[in-house]
Amino acid sequence: MKNKKRWLLTTILISIIMLLSGCNSMVVLNPKGPVAKTQSDTIIFSILMMAFVLLVVYILFVFMLTKYRSSKTSDDYEPPHMEGNKWLELIWTVIPIIIVAILSVVTVRTTNAVEKVPAGYETQKPLVIYAASSNWKWHFSYPEENIETVNYVNIPTNRPVEFRLYSYGPITSFWVPQLGGQKYAMSDMVTKLNLVAEHEGSFMGKNSNFSGKGFAQMEFEVLAQTPAEYSKWVKDVKDTAPKLTEQEFNKLLKTEIVGRKSFTSTHLGFAPAPMDMSEHGKSGDSKTESTDSSKEPMDHSDMSNMDHSNMDMKDMNDNSSMESGH
Amino acid sequence: MKWDEFFVTGEPMIYGAMVSIVLVSIAILVGLTYFKKWGYLWREWLTTVDHKRIGVMYILSALIMLFRGGVDALLMRTQLAVPESGFLDSQHYNEIFTTHGVIMILFMAMPFVIGLMNVVVPLQIGARDVAFPRLNAVSFWLFFAGAMLFNISFVIGGSPDAGWSAYFPLASLEFSPTVGNNFYSLALQISGIGTLMTGVNFIVTILKMRAPGMKLMRMPMFTWSVLITNVIILFAFPVLTVALALMMFDRVFGSQFFTMANGGMDMLWANLFWVWGHPEVYIVILPAFGIFSDIISTFSKKNLYGYKSMVFSMVIISLLSFLVWAHHFYTMGAGAMVNGFFSITTMLIAVPTGVKIFNWLFTLRKGKITFTSPMLYAMAFIPIFTFGGVTGVMLAMASADYQYHNTMFLVAHFHYVLIPGTVFGVLAGLHYWFPKIFGFRLNERRAKTAFWLIVVGFNVAFMPLFFLGLQGMTRRMYTYSADTGFGPLNMIATIGAFVLAIGFVVLCYNFYYSFRHSPRDEHGDPWDARTLEWSIPSPVPVYNFAKVPHVESQDAFWHAKKHNVPLFKEGPYEEIHMPNNSGQPFILGVIMFFAGFFLVFSWFIPALIAGIGVVIMLAVRSFERDHGYHISAKEIAATEQKLRGDSV
Predict the structure, then answer these.
(1) Which candidate in A25, A73, A172 is best for mutational testing of the B interface (most B CBs within 10 A)?
(2) What is the average pLDDT score of chain B?
(3) B302, A177: Cβ pair inside 8 Å?
């Protein structure tokens, strides 16, 4: 028994040391932007709290097991009848409640922080990038620059990037661990993920939600560049890449595995993103248009009983006109 | 459907499996005929309504399913041991992790827990059977039909491949056109209905059939945990029933509840699934808590510390279990408010669970601890489960979960609670109650060898996954490239998995070894235990208690032993009313199997005929007059004389 305890404790100690030494291979604990930094700090804070809990339990456990084993008591020892103790039980109810309360405050604050544009970047105009998944690749549309890429995305450093996520098919999850936690991309609404890269570099991005046969290959590169380099890259794409036609896009959707691609227009004009849930979440049903590119007519029966239907339609038109205007 | 699509083809491993299934089936048929055991099998097992035998059949099925799920796990670990491995292709890997999850939760953990409930609960409350013995048999055969239907999918038609949570639209016809997910919806539906009936049965049994004097607050903790578990079943399983029915409509009849087009809502499936799915994990963990409570108390030679707060904390856990489901998809974009709420409810579960941990620790205090094999599992449970539990608190924090979600960190966490919790729990329970069921103990030396292999193997297999998660390795990926750096830790995990598997082999070998060599138990109380089931002979006679016990306190049997008060009143035996055996539950199970099978392939006419068969079976049961039979006082006296060697 003793060996096992020692072994267990050693494992845990090693774990903690490995974690806190900030092993570079642990991408989650090696943040390159404020969102991932917040999350990494939260994780390390929670590990410390939990290590304290574990320590208390393990010390008690080892104490009980070494002290009260039958080989250490006389043969005629009769363990007493104990009903429980009001005060002791109160202690181990109240202390966990306090720990949970502390963690709750941290969780609510940090969750709010990572959902918003990171602090210090609120005033900047975010770079909007639509990231759409299809089996099994990622399409990145830059409405502002009017370019589109497949399976790689370049972003400028120190500027908030607003990823608008949706999917042509199964639920996927857009995840760039060194920039921040993931969010689902779904077929009938747009979710938003605010990220900022504070360091230049190439970061691994992937779909983390199982989506079928080619799931393991669904990775992309995020290249964070200085604004100047970024502008140069945009210009290069515009100079060299072809236009994305509807036909080409539909063909691309059907191709299972493709390499990197670049285009000088986006698919948003002929195949707009589904309604944005995060802005119109309160209006209920999000189903305003079909997500496949065949452009089915809108289902007005869905909308007729909604107060905001007019507003939704207007916003959507605004969006698409804005996007196609570039 | 073309006939060449009916059987799964093109995989050498599956051809091997087909051949071995055929060979094993033939061997069983020949063996039964040769040893003239058909009549025995039918009379004593297939038609039984005895809760103890039904329990044994549940446990046996669970062990077989543990083997199947375990092989799935080893295949996955072998594939992941090295980067770019070509051992399995993507589709095969996807099917294997799906069936591994479904089988381990629904066809291993559930029946194991329900099997122990069946064997133990009536004995712990001094009852002669469950409230509805025939319904109990129906529950078992529906579970078994569902399990078999699910298992044949890998040779006929193809296994489901959308994960055990079968998220839409991935599980819809559009993205999963094979019949695999039809098997999922129908097999789970059939066995789920059986589980729901178990829920009703055990609530009534525990509330109405306790021996005189056994107030609710005098019940053994395992019985308490089973009562609360079955209340959860009663509220959670209807959600699964509805979700699976909608899934079947979508896939078999072309409705659009969860599809991408025409107003379907893929997120609705995720919500329904987890509204059932999260309580489900408490359905498999709470009985394990009960088992550990009984075992820790028995082998510390002390009553359970803080009995009332133990009960109260389980009630709180059961309530909270229905308020946390959205933590399975924080990343769906519900916003900081919703995620904050579910973070707090989730973390709150740590409070009653912590209370239980400390109560167990203080049960040990001033005790006289002996390390028998059941106690070893209970003692390994405390530190490992606590570790799994605190990582659960870390996952509960929404902001951090955005980084853990869908990664190996999550996989490590839920194996770190389900294996030391549920699996160690049922293994501890199996070793503990084995002499009660079969009349001899499992060999301690071999049991301890198996225990150490399992505990060490488990930690080596799953500890690395926490780090792989933080390195960015997601779950369910069938391969990874060498430059991800995931290779070494995966290799360690695979080695651990094989050590774990060897542990299970030793454990199973111990059944055979102990059957051959263990001394037979003479007095029915090999552990010097505390609760009523140990007051009767082992193996237990069909009527359980020759006389109904009278309970005066908690740990009734211990109380009777220590204070020398009789549990059973003096006086002659009275005749006992028992339920008759019936072949109907078995036949109903067979018909349900075929109804499900035909629906899987959308063969509507045969399915309709099978459906009519089900209705006929229900009608037959409704009009049947079956008053059971009586065991005479003389026969009871003779049996007791033989079993106890004296007249009580």
Answers:
(1) A25
(2) 93
(3) no
Instruction: Quote the DSSP letter at residue A264.
Output: S
CA torsion, ordered B450, B453, B455, B461, to nearest 10 deg: -140
| Alpha carbon distance B372, A153 (integer Å) | 59
**Could you check whether the bond before residue B220 is cis, i.e. omega within 30 degrees of 0?**
no
B322 contacts B346 by C-beta, under 8 angstroms: no
B249 versus B26: the higher-pLDDT residue is B249
Query: What tokens were used for B448?
Result: 């301890």
Phi, psi of B632 (to 5 degrees): -75, 155
B330-382 pLDDT, tens digit per residue, is: 999 888 999 999 999 999 999 999 999 999 999 999 999 999 999 999 999 99
Per CB-CB distance under 8 Å, the chain B contacts of A39 are 399-400, 402-403
pLDDT for the residue A282? 40
pLDDT at A23: 57
Residues of chain B neighbouring A100 (CB-CB closer than 8 A): 344, 347-348, 350-351, 393
pLDDT of A5 strictly over 80: no
ipTM score here? 0.92
Burial B367-404 (b: 16+ CB within 10 A, else e): bbbebbbbbbbbbbbbbbbbbbbbbbbbbbbbbbbbbb
Question: CB distance A216–B382 less than 8 Å?
Answer: no
Size of interface A-B (CB pairs under 8 A): 294
Rounded average pLDDT over B594-605:
95
Position B560 scores a pLDDT of 92
Please count the residues of chain B. 648
First-residue to last-residue Cα distance in chain A: 71
Interface test with B, best of A56, A102, A171 (most B CBs within 10 A): A171
Comparing CA positions, the residue from A193, A93, A99, A16 lying closest to residue B396 is A99
Contacts of A189 in chain B (CB under 8 A): 333
State the alpha helices, DSSP H only, in A281-308: 300-303
Chain A interface mutation, best of B357, B371, B402, highest count of A Cβ atoms under 10 Å:
B402
CB atoms A57 and B163 under 8 Å: no
> Out of A5, A78, A210, whose CB is closest to B476?
A210
CA distance B591 to B609: 10
pLDDT surpasses 80 at A309 = no
- Burial string for B281-294 (b: 16+ CB within 10 Å, else e) reads bbbbbbbbbbbbbb
Determine the Cα–Cα distance for residues B142 and B137; give it in Å rounded to an integer: 9
pLDDT(B399) > 80: yes
Which of the residue ranges A84-88, B64-68, B94-98 would you say has the lowest mean pLDDT? A84-88
What residue of A is the nearest CA neighbor of B174? Answer: A169
Please give the residue of chain A at the shortest CA–CA distance from B176.
A212
Contacts of A88 in chain B (CB under 8 A): 358, 362
Contact status of A18 with chain B (Cβ, < 8 Å):
yes
**Residues in B 151-190 with any Cβ partner in A closer than 8 A:** 161-163, 167, 169-170, 175-176
| Residues B263, A307: Cα–Cα separation, whole Å | 18
Residue B1: pLDDT above 70? no
pLDDT greater than 90 at residue B506: yes
